[in-house]
Design brief:
With 104 residues, the protein is of the alpha+beta class. The protein has helices at 24-30, 65-71; strands at residues 3-8, 13-17, 49-52, 81-83, 96-100. The protein is globular.
């Protein structure tokens, strides 16, 4: 079972066991973090925006044009911003590190 490392804006770090095939958005929300995900993963908002650790960013699947368009609406985007609904956990992502930004 792969692990996801989640850091909140206060620097608190948690390591979560993740089922393969679940989106990062689902895992983070199920773990009690304040991550809205208003569109429930339909790629119609940016409320599940996270910052991916720079070492992990190139290991993710490429950002789609639709995701890029939605990231334009994210609060405090960075060069490693992604929509967590578009990151699906796999064994290859074991140890993925993300930071959940402050809710607007």
């Amino acid at each position: 079972m792969p692990k996801l490392i989640v850091i909140n804006v206060d620097g608190d770090r948690r390591e979560l066991d993740v089922a393969v095939g679940k989106s990062v958005m689902q895992v983070v929300r199920d773990s009690g973090y304040d991550l809205e995900g208003a569109c429930e993963g339909a790629l119609a908002c940016a409320t599940c925006h996270v910052h991916v650790d720079a070492a992990w960013y190139p290991k993710l699947e490429s950002v789609s044009i639709d995701e890029t368009d939605m990231l334009d609406f994210a609060d405090e985007p960075s060069g490693t911003s992604r929509l967590s609904c578009q990151i699906v956990m796999s064994d290859d992502l074991d140890g993925l590190v993300i930071t959940v930004p402050r809710a607007p």
